[in-house]
Amino acid sequence: MFTGIVERQALVRSLSGGKVPRLIVSKPTSWKFKLGASVAVDGVCLTVVAQTASSFSTEVVPETLARTTMRSFREGRKVNLERP
């Protein structure tokens, strides 16, 4: 469950195109995720599918792109992050 309280802000690194677009976001230094973990990015609940020391990746299904502002995300955009 998410509280609605923004924990951190981070930068979008990329939002790729394709059948299932992938969103890559800078990861706050102290954050670690297990694969399959949930994270809210600008209020949208997403699932972590990969991570590096400095970023995490999620897949964004077409329905999410159609019903949120995520399709306008560009490299360098600041987004709000929240863990459940």
Brief write-up:
With 84 residues, the chain is mainly beta.
What would you note in describing this structure?
The protein is mainly beta. Helices cover about 5% and strands about 40% of the residues. The protein has 1 helix and 6 strands. The protein has one helix spanning about 60-65; strands spanning about 10-15, 20-25, 40, 45-50, 55-60, 80. It has a 6-stranded antiparallel barrel.
Keywords:
84 residues; 42% strand; mainly beta; 6-stranded antiparallel barrel
Terminal CA distance reads 5 Å
Mean pLDDT: 93
How many strand elements? 6
> In one word, what is the shape?
globular
What Rg, in angstroms, do the CA atoms define?
A: 12 Å
Indicate the structural class.
mainly beta
Strand share of the residues? 35-45%
| Elements, N to C (H/E) | EEEEEHE
Write the layout of secondary structure elements.
Layout: E1 8-15, E2 22-26, E3 38-41, E4 44-51, E5 55-59, H1 62-67, E6 78-82
Antiparallel strand pairs: 1-2, 1-6, 2-5, 3-4, 3-6, 4-5
